[in-house]
Amino acid sequence: MDSFTYITKGTCSKEIKITIDNGIITGISFKSGCNGNLQGISKLVTGMSVDEVIKRLEGIDCNGKGTSCPDQLSRALKEYISGRIGA
Fold first, then answer.
1. pTM above the 0.85 mark?
2. Residue 9 falls within a domain, yes or no?
3. Structural domain total, the chain
4. How far apart are CA 83 and CA 60, in angstroms?
5. Which of 1, 31, 58, 77: CA 20 to 30 A from 68?
6. Is 53 a member of any domain?
7. Is residue 12 in a domain?
8. Cβ atoms 76, 85 nearer than 8 A
9. Other CB atoms closer than 10 Å to residue 58's CB: what's the count?
10. Is 17 inside a domain boundary?
11. What angle do CA 39, 41, 42 make, to 5 degrees?
12. What CATH number is attached to the domain comprising 19?
């Protein structure tokens, strides 16, 4: 089981805490941001594979920022896969 914190860039949320077990997201929480929406995202992706979450959330834009909280989650997971964070 791996747990790590990703510092977000360009979003209202400041960080994402993620726990992954055998390629499956088992826990996730966001610090700051739109509380209800981020709780919803957390519940929806818990139990999903890392690859599926990346596929579904990558590239989502929030108000022309070029990123969003869901996109930042996909970026965190891509860094995890590449070995740059976590593990």
1. yes
2. yes
3. 1
4. 23
5. 1
6. yes
7. yes
8. yes
9. 14
10. yes
11. 60
12. 3.90.1010.10
* β partners of residue 32: none
Q: What type of residue sits at position 33?
A: G
86 beta partners: none
CA distance 65 to 60: 10
4 vs 16: CA distance, rounded Å: 8
Q: What are phi and psi of 14, to 5 degrees?
A: -100, -30
SS3 77: helix
Give per-residue pLDDT as tens, 10-59. Answer: 999 999 999 999 999 999 999 999 999 999 999 999 999 999 999 999 99
Q: What is the distance between the alpha carbons of residues 62 and 22, in angstroms, rounded to a whole number? A: 30
Assigned token pair, 25: 């997201």
